[in-house]
Specification:
349 residues; alpha/beta; three-stranded antiparallel β-sheet; 15 strands; 38% helix; binds 5-S-methyl-1-O-phosphono-5-thio-D-ribulose
């Protein structure tokens, strides 16, 4: 389906993890390489590697690096897997990839077999491949949501940079645009770390998709003046009832969509569905450093001593969501995700 990407967000090469440092985009394309699992953890924490599916993939490769470091010492490796799985709290892909890697370890005593890094690498590559395929399937299902050319608004970044495949929401936008069903993408800048301005616009340009950057607070005005035909976003975690945690500001967009009768779609792989969480209220929302709000490019933009809050995500109640697209199809209300969604899964509804 998809052409090779013009950039590679993450790959395993010669016993090392190579990744594009997203904190430098769009100004510099800096590729880093590491054999140190702790460097991968810090890259995830500082958002050099980011986006729910991509941090799951990175976590899996980090576990392989940890296994190469600790060799047969089970206790050390298990401790490292725990640290990797906790690098960020909201996207379930990270902790579930870490748990999946843990489950590959053979049971037994304190000493692991020598071939454990090889076993783990097979699983990490599998996780990466599954995410790629999920993106392709999401894109194909999602395109059926559009029947005439419209302009679509999105938030944050959901393309190859966030997923390791063609993207979730971005994959749908890309496919719909290729089929003449989307004319333009409006990208919310996504304060405070500007994933929309820095990354989504960059990816739209790389793929030739016409895109317009707006400041986050312009979304309501655009909807009110008839410029937005639909909103499509990604997800960091989907609860059993269809509540969706995603980048801060997503909830506001969904409420605005309801007020303006504009469809609001979520796109995510089933690896973002958490069947241990009933509703969005149970999803842990990451709090980032207040400096991300009070500083800009190293300079203060608020008086010294300002008390600031920096939630990185919010959750959108299912009632505001028109449909959720996973690799398994288009899900409509009432949403009901269960453990089968992550394995064989229920059919589309
Ligand atoms: O903090 P980030 O940049 O990792 O947040 C990412 C998002 O909120 C994305 O929309 C989400 O992970 C979906 S990625 C396909």
């Amino acid at each position: 389906l998809t052409k090779p990407e013009p950039y590679t967000p993450i790959e395993w090469r010669d016993g090392r993890v190579r990744y594009l440092d997203q904190t430098h985009l769009p100004n510099e394309e800096i590729v880093r390489e590491t054999a140190d699992w702790e460097n991968v953890v810090s890259a995830i924490k500082r958002l050099a590697i980011r986006g729910a599916p991509l941090i799951g993939i990175a976590a899996a490769y980090a576990v392989v690096l940890a296994a190469m470091t600790f060799r047969q010492r089970r206790e050390k490796l298990e401790r490292a897997i725990q640290v990797i799985g906790n690098a960020r709290p909201t996207a379930v892909n990270l902790s579930s990839a870490a748990s999946r890697m843990l489950s590959v370890l053979p049971t037994g005593g304190a000493a692991l077999p020598v071939d454990v890094p090889d076993l783990l690498l097979v699983e990490a590559r599998r996780i990466h491949e599954e995410e790629r395929h999920a993106c392709e399937a999401i894109s194909l299902h999602g395109v059926s949501l559009f029947s005439r050319p419209i302009d679509v608004l999105t938030i944050c970044n959901t393309g190859p940079l966030a997923t390791g495949g063609i993207g979730t929401a971005f994959g749908i936008l890309h496919t719909a645009w290729s089929n003449g069903l989307i004319r333009r993408v409006y990208a919310c800048e996504t304060r405070p770390l500007l994933q929309g301005a820095r990354l989504t616009i960059w990816e739209c340009m790389k793929h030739g998709i016409p895109a317009t950057l707006i400041n986050d607070s312009a979304a309501g005005h655009l909807m009110q003046t008839g410029k937005v035909g639909a909103v499509v976003t990604g997800a960091d975690r989907i609860a059993m009832n269809g509540d969706v945690a995603n980048k801060i500001g997503t909830y506001m967009l969904a409420v605005l969509c309801e007020a303006h009768r504009i469809p609001f779609y979520t796109a995510a792989p089933s690896s973002s569905v958490d069947v241990t969480v009933r509703t969005g209220e149970n999803i842990v929302i990451e709090e980032r450093s207040a400096d991300e709000i009070t500083m800009f490019q190293g300079k203060p933009i608020a008086p010294s001593g300002t008390h600031a809050l920096a939630p990185a995500f919010d959750f959108t109640p299912a009632r505001f969501i028109t449909a959720i697209v996973t690799e398994r199809g288009i899900h409509r209300k009432p949403f009901q995700f269960d453990s089968r969604e992550q394995i064989a899964g229920p059919g589309t509804s």
